Amino acid sequence: MLRKLYYFLPPVARFWVRRLVYLPLDIFESLSGKRNPMVPPRGLIFTGSGDFEKQGQKMIRHLKDSTDLLPSHKILDIGSGIGRMAVALTGFLNSEGSYEGFDVVKKGVKWCQKNISSRYPNFQFQYIDLDNDLYKSSGASAEQFTFPYQEDQFDRILVISVFTHMLPKEVHQYLKEIYRVLQPGGQCLATFFILNNDSEALMEKNKHFHFPHDHGHYSLMSDRVKSANVAFEEDYLFSIVKEANLEIKHFFPGHWCGRNPKDCKDFQDILIFIKGS
By percentage, how much of the chain surpasses pLDDT 90? Predict the structure, then answer.
């Protein structure tokens, strides 16, 4: 019910609601000096739940373990949000490594530029004016968006909780762009909600998190806010990954649908793509 009420609000109001809810705690942490200056106030965080630092560190561990991440690698963070992955990488990348991030939420990009880039010049962030009805009420279409980077520029790419808020044509375009900007042999870690026999059977018992609006090869949590949460049929998703000339190296199912969290790496499903050499 709370999620439905939240989605009923316009995008700007959703940000203000979170800001107001956490304002007393943010004021206390600011005055007491208990908040790490590399961690944004809770009311500004619009990406994911849980502990900001621990969640970022956990995902970077998955990237290290699954893709042999090196401190000298060049990393692209698609949907960089308010720096959750970037903060976790500041203590890992060396002076030869670099980080590029972009996001559709301007306040997140500005916070990262002020608080991360100012301390780590090899970490850069860009605001991209794209439409997404979860976060914005205007912007260009992501279906035709070309990443502002050169071909074969990155060793590793992160797409954390981004494809879970995008529709099929947008995802297809991003997969093609991921292939273009990855170096040969480069790898991408991306998260999804993937529908298959296993997840759908488990979801029947998990009424708190489900996708009731069936659109064929994808389903929505809300028809009012289409980008709120999006789940893809496994066969369809794997087919567009292949069409983008990417190879699936690993598939780690998440516990969003009701799996035992102890058996999963993360809440969302994780796919590791590789670009052939």
Answer: 71
